[in-house]
Amino acid sequence: MGIIWVLFTLLALILVPCGDLGAQKVVKVGMLKLVSSAPLFIGMDKGFFEEEGIKCEAVYFNSAQPISTALASKDVDVAATGLTAGLYNLIGSGMDMKIVADKGREKKGFKLTAIMISNKEYEKGTRKLSDLKGKKIGVTQVGSTFHYILGRLLEEEGLSLKDVEVVPMGGLKNIADALSTDGIQGGFVVQPHVSLLEEKGLGKVLLWVSDKMDYQIAAIVYGERMFKERDVGSAFMRAYRKSTDYYYKKGLLAMKESRASEADEVLGIISKYTEVEKGFVAKGLNYNDPEGRLDLKDIQRQLEWLSKEGLLKKRLTPGEVVDESFLNQILKN
Prior knowledge:
alpha/beta, D-Maltodextrin-Binding Protein, domain 2, 2 domains, five-stranded mixed sheet, globular
């Protein structure tokens, strides 16, 4: 009888998937329903997080800064968000949170963020950024990624933020709505919503940010729990790393090599989570590093510019805001 019981137990263990042997750890992730969240969507849809014993619970927001605040208040465990002045200030204030991996970059050849103009502004002949001098340009918030991009691009035109009227709109939808009615003359829109606005004839693309600058626009940020429970932090990173690789090989490479049919699965997953048709998604797959690596030199540039503009409460270095230990450990194995 004892031998039969042992055999029965062993058989049960074989039949039960590894992820079900113990209760899955729920990890709340603050994110936006944007194409740049593709690796997270893939990880959730393909079961990569579950394979690591993680239940990735998405908590959706309308803009980047509230995600950082939610991470600081422990309402989420991980922030998949833009690199804003607010995020840097929270880290600099001593909050137990650090940037740990890439979540999206502006890179030439990949369309993520555009400055769009209203139809009325286009009809007036506006064709370049300097034509918006003295006009209203919508950003989500002061100190946001869009605020930073606008400042940098204006400087390249020999202008500054003082030469335009920066209008904080709170969220991407508000920017899109204001553009469609000429409430603002220019504003930042992110894929897949750029393609949607163009298709509906509600605005025109003035420029793509990736044509003007390389920029580490977004990242995965760990909160206190992920550092205290390093096994959970490591498990999440293993799943995320698998997801970035899948997105790069099955999505980006396939699209770049004109193998759109092979990318259909990835497009379908992104479409499912962003609630946007695959055709629009296909027009704007942004660049994510296949290994999840961060552009530390660009983060240094960001910190220097934000400090110069008085948007940081104190000077910071990449070493103070970034922790690559989780990613480095995964890449070694």
